[in-house]
Design goal:
single chain; alpha/beta; 9-stranded mixed beta sheet; 9 strands
Length: about 400
């Protein structure tokens, strides 16, 4: 793309080099595996990914998985583009995105932003029902699904500092200056939550409502909210069963599962040498997250889906996705990642609560940082709602964004 090609989308077709696919098979053939300890049961994931599962998936990746067929399906299902934008306080960055336009005259532009270790493929099961609902009474959407730079086909940033705050600026440029959507709504989970929260704080004139299935925040200071703090102290007696379960989930995550967070937010490049060179290493690193963060009792991720998700990071050598954590936790200022946990979100907010989500703060914590207008609790689902239970998320998006509050916000 030349210097004068800013804001001019070009169609994109995903096509990985044959050399990478051949190298991947060779590396899989040369893999070494750890040994499970004899007193660790098959369903005990406390030491990380299970050897037998990783071996089985690696063998299938090497001998059965057909990337070219999957690649063709992705290209058939997604209307993909790339565009170079000028990101304020950063400079030029090429963005990858999918854009699906509804035929409905009243369709609402919806920006869907994924997280890690996901990719734009998280939206795969929800684009069709959102753009083409079953009847005229059901709200329709134009769906825009960008890749976080460095995830999947998204060009990785060439300079440091590109975290959620700058991603938000890049995606705002995409929505407003490239695609011409002056008012739109957003859906975010994981990093998508942080990116779209930053967008709503930076660009409230454009982001008119937000929906989240992941909304991390802490309790407000006791001196600002003594009743909330009192309720926390007496939580065994005053919290709902859902809130108590959520606290347990967060405590388990902090005790047993956030080691990846410490490494990726401090020394991602060192980790990238291993995960970016070893398909077995990356497979194990991601499989453990899928198992621990999904509601595995209600959704079993198919092997092809697992490997395709892994390929989205393998194609980039894994490091850009890992590095995003470093960039995010280094952000400062009122729109940086650190401020998002405490800054008030005045844009109308909808929340979907899935029981196996790793962070589900109590309701009164949310009230101090968000203008919550919609909430729905579900009895199944985890961190990857669009993958695990797409029909539930689709219905929540329809109901949230067709409310009177959101309709008014979109027309102001």
């Amino acid at each position: 793309m030349t210097e004068d090609n800013y804001n001019k989308p070009t169609p994109f077709t995903l096509r990985l080099d044959d050399d990478l696919l051949e190298l991947t098979k060779k590396k899989l053939q040369l893999a070494r595996y750890p040994e499970e300890q004899t007193d660790i049961s098959d369903d005990d994931w406390s030491q990380g990914a299970k050897v037998n599962m990783v071996k089985r998936l690696a063998d299938y990746w090497k001998d059965g998985y057909d990337w070219r067929a999957e690649e063709a399906r992705i290209n058939a299902e997604f209307n993909q583009f790339k565009v170079k934008v000028d990101v304020p306080d950063y400079g030029p960055q090429v963005l990858h995105y999918a854009h699906h336009i509804s035929s409905r005259a009243n369709a609402i532009p919806l920006l869907f932003v994924h997280g890690w270790p996901g990719s734009f493929l998280e939206a795969r099961k929800i684009i069709e029902p959102l753009t083409n609902p079953p009847d005229s009474a059901t709200q329709a959407f134009h769906v825009i699904v960008p890749s976080i730079p460095g995830f999947g086909p998204g060009d990785p940033p060439t300079k440091s500092g590109f975290g959620p705050m700058l991603t938000a600026r890049g995606f705002q440029t995409l929505m407003v200056d490239v695609l011409g959507y002056q008012r739109f709504v957003t859906q975010g989970g994981d990093w998508g939550s942080m990116i779209t929260r930053s967008m709503a704080l930076q660009f409230p004139q454009h982001v008119r409502a937000c929906h989240y299935n992941f909304f991390p925040c802490g309790p407000p200071p006791w001196y600002k909210a003594p009743l909330t703090m009192g309720r926390l102290i007496l939580s065994p007696y005053l919290y709902t069963d859902r809130e108590l379960d959520s606290i347990k989930n967060m405590q388990h995550y902090q005790k047993e599962q956030d080691g990846y967070l410490k490494v990726q937010s401090t020394r991602p490049q060192s980790l990238g040498f291993g995960l970016g060179d070893s398909p077995i290493g990356l497979l194990a690193w991601l499989v453990e997250k899928f198992h621990e963060w999904m509601d595995v009792a209600n959704y079993e991720m198919p092997d092809d889906e697992i490997l395709t998700f892994v390929m989205m990071h393998w194609m980039q050598g894994a490091t850009p996705g890992l590095r995003y954590y470093k960039m995010a936790f280094a952000e400062e200022g009122e729109f940086g990642s650190k401020a998002l946990f405490t800054g008030y979100h005045n844009t109308p907010v909808g929340l979907s609560h899935f029981p196996k989500e790793i962070v589900l703060p109590p309701y009164d914590w949310v009230a101090h940082v968000a203008n919550e207008q919609f909430r729905r609790e579900h009895d199944r689902g985890g961190h990857f709602a669009a993958v695990e239970c797409p029909e539930l998320l689709v219905q929540d998006l329809r109901d949230c964004f067709s409310s009177e509050t959101v309709t008014l916000a979109l027309n102001l």
